[in-house]
Structure formats: C-alpha cells, structure tokens
Amino acid sequence: MKLRKLKIVNFRNFDNCEIELSNKNLIFGMNDVGKSNLIYALRLLFDGKARNNQIYDTDFHTCNKSNPIEISCYLDISEDNDYNNIIIAKADNAITDNTELFTIKLTIEFSNNQFISNLSWGSENEELIEIPMRGLNRTILDDIFYCVFIPSQNDISSKFKEFKKELLNNYQKNDDDINIESEIQELNQLFNQKISILSTIKTMESSLNEQLDLFDKNYKIKISPSHTFGDLHNNLDIFMFDNREDDIEPTFYPTSGDGRIRKVMYALISYLLNNGVNANGKIPILLIEEPENHLFLSSQIELSKTIFNEEFSPYLFLVTHSPQLFFKISNEANLIRLFKQNQKIEISSEIANIGDKYNDLKNILIENLAQCLFVNRVLLVEGPSEKLLFEWVLDKLGYDRTDITIQSISGIYFDKYVQILKGLGIKIIIKTDNDIAKVPRNDELNALGFNRCVDIFNILNNADESNKKQRLGYSTLDIDNFRNLINSNYTGDIQDFAQSGIHLSKIDLENDLAECLDKDRDFVDSLQKSKWINMWEFIKNATEDDAGKIFNHENFKCLQDLVNE
C-alpha cells in the first residue's frame, strides 16, 4: 500500500486543500497554521476512537455548516503485497479497478439539527459505497487500520497500561509462574499474621472489646489485616538504570525526567505497533506530534534515524518544529509545509528524493536544507564567506531575520536545494559567482556561473523545451574576455535571472565587495587567500556605513530581495 494524496474540505482552518503524500510524511510550518488540525483530520479518518468524539460547529471551516466536511485519502493498492491484500479482502465489493487509486472518504454534515457522519470507499473515479458497520460504533475500516497517535505531551502511564494489557493477553503462564504465585500467596498469609500480632493491633482489639461489653457480651471484636496482592501486575512501574554500570545490583531511577519518559514511550509504541493484539492483521498508521519535546539535539537526531527506519512503522505522519528531525530522513520521505499566504492557509509538499548520485552528499544536503524549512524566504550562497558577510550586514542594519535565512550550499549543486524549496512554496534568492572553468582535456572554457543561472531559472519558471533559456557553449576566448562578453552581451538574460531572484556576480563576491566599497586589488587578493578568516577580520573593522553601502549597492540586490516580502 502506498499513500498518494489527502484531500480536506471545509474542516477547521482548511477551506479546500489537496496534499501529495508518501508513506513517510513530515509536517512542519510556523505556529497556528493547522498542523495539529491536519493530524486530527487523519485521526478522524483512520482512528475509530477519534471518529466517535463529539463534533462541534468550530470543526467546520469558518463555522460554515451549510457545506459538509470532507476528508479523503487516496491509496495505491495495485501491487501484490500483504497490506494491499488486507484492503482487497475487506473491501472487495468496493474495488472495481485496483489499478486506480483506492479512496477512503469521511463526510460530516449538519442536518436536522444534528451532525451526521458517513464513511465510504471505492475506486477513485467510481461512485463510492458506504463502509459497512461492525457493531454500534465501529466499521470494517477499524478492522483494517491500527492508528496510533502520540501527542506532544508525555502520556506514558496510559501507554504502559496498554502495553501490559497487550502483553498479558498474549501470554500463557508457565509452571514456574504458577509455583511463584503459590509462594506469594503463602507469604501474603504470613505477612497478615505478623501484622495481626503487633502490640498496636492488640491494644485496639482490647479497647474496643471493653466498650463492646457494655452493649453486648455475646460477641468479641477481632482486628485482622486484609492485605492482598490481587492482580500481581496492577502496581507495576517503570524504572531505568545505566546499562554501562558494572554493579551487580545497579541503581534504579524513576522515569521522571521528560526526556527519559519520551524515550520509554517510543519503546512502548514500537512494541504495540509490531507485537500488539490490535496490530495483528492490520495496517499500522503512526501519527506523532512534536517528538523532539524534552530531547537533546543528539537524541533528536537519533530519533530521526529510528523513526525513518522501515521497521519502526511503514506509514508515518510526524509534526515537528525541529530541523534535527530531518537529518536522517529516508530518501522518499515527503515534506509537507503549511504556511499562511494572504491570510489563507496554504499547503505545499515535496518528496525529498536526493537521488543515488548524491548519496555521498545526502547528509550535508539534508542538514543544510533543514535549516531552510522553517522560514518563508531563503538566500542560497556559495560558501561561508557570503553567509558571514550577509548576516553581518543585516544584523548591523537591524533587520529582523526571524522569517528569513542565509544558507551556504557547502559545495552541493544549487539545483538540489531549489527543487525541494520551490516545491514547498519557499521563496528562493540566489547569489552566485560568475565562474569560468576550463573544459577538461580541451583548450576551451565553460561559462559555469552563467549556465548555472540558466538551469536554476528554467527550474524556477517551469520552463519546457519551447521557452527555456539555453546554456552558453564553450569558448576559445581567454577567461577575462569570455567573462566580459557574458556581462556585456547577455544583459537581458542577467536581468531575467535577477527578476527570478538569481543574482550573478560580475566576477565573484570579493570583486563585488571591492567595487562597492571602492577597494583596490590588494583587498580582493587578501579576501581570496583565506576567505572565511579574512572576511571575519574585515567585518570586525567594518562600520554601519559600510553595511549600508553593501545593502544598497546593485551588486548585492539579493539582500534587498531577501528582506522585502
């Protein structure tokens, strides 16, 4: 089974949206854009308990009850595998063509002064049929999917109860267990006998019997303890100890720390998903809200590695504010970004498909990308010198960087960043050098910087063969003359680049800066020798006036594009 798309209509802050899905989905965005509402929409569809919750007027978009709420999920069940066979076996009469997407749809409408819910399913382009009920509050859908929701706050006590129930339901006592329980009962009797002969108990008995004699001499009072262990598993609790300790009897710690509790809860969830009775023969769907809460950064990265492992849960929706949760995402993970545009909630999604040829650079790319996902505008630059200079300029001039970021691409091609960020609806600005490179085993030169801008321009503008810009061919001119030719003869293209947020240097950062501040060749040579270190030395001595000149100069229009919405 493959998750393909989700459609939400008239539900809470979603007017009408359609989201592309994969089997592993990361949901992110600023506060108050509806991330929790998106998770709850999924719960209404796949979790029978949530579906039986009370519906309110506020669940309808802008309280518009004249139109129904519609939540639909589209699944690809065309392959022959266990999960698809579960659906086909249960919904056989609803499937007319399993090469089409299979649709599961929840409709909630207000009629005759009450809310009426209806679940239906079937092939995407066919009329859907109602999903049969299983008793009063269950449907066949609840026999197919096992939906587990992990809220942002710790809920270990209820999960531990569920874990005990699942484990004990599956477990048969052995002979040793029966013998141990018999010994416990004998110890319990001895325990009560010892309590009954305490002097305090004897004093209570004699005092009460003296008073009882005044009323009735035929009876006597006996005070006896009635301690019993009952169900031996009732009062179990979880403790932790350091596995690295060499002590025969290690020190046990309560799971009181929020970080510890969080890790134990994930262990419980992992068991329930893979071994629980409710999961047997069902398709597990895991919904997690803000798993990074109470975890150190290193633990968040390790958690990312765990939850994106196929064995943890094949179907995942995860809400996060943490860049670290993106560090170990699987190659086909889907990024879902929620954001506001013109006071309306928008949703963009993009598969984080890095590609095999980038696997050796994947960690660098993903970690850098993660820093760009929680803002609305990103300036991509060649290296750390540009990042250092541009951040200093904005800070010196007092610009708020809450909603923007400047990211060095760290030696990875711009297009891999652009493809993902564009798909997520994040505005992209680029500042790149006008590189000229020698063609290997050839006397010709390649307009590397200009052609880089051509490729990015075509991506940003969805250009096809009929309207895309063409790369420059090789040249036999020397480097300076070839670059001068580009700057003078292709001004129209360079202006088009700038209109799309792609800013090509006349030469490079150092020469752009020298022209802006009227510096000589020695200044350029110094910055180019030890770029980051000498750039740091430069900004230590630079003034606010220098920052203003840089910001307002045409060579650095990328900064104005970045701060202006």
TrEMBL record:
Gene3D superfamilies: P-loop containing nucleotide triphosphate hydrolases. PANTHER family: DNA REPLICATION AND REPAIR PROTEIN RECF. Signal peptide: none annotated. Residues 373-435 form the OLD protein-like TOPRIM domain. This is Recombination protein F. One of its GO terms (biological process) is DNA synthesis involved in DNA repair. It comes from Alysiella crassa. It comes from the Bacteria. Residues 1-324 form the Endonuclease GajA/Old nuclease/RecF-like AAA domain.
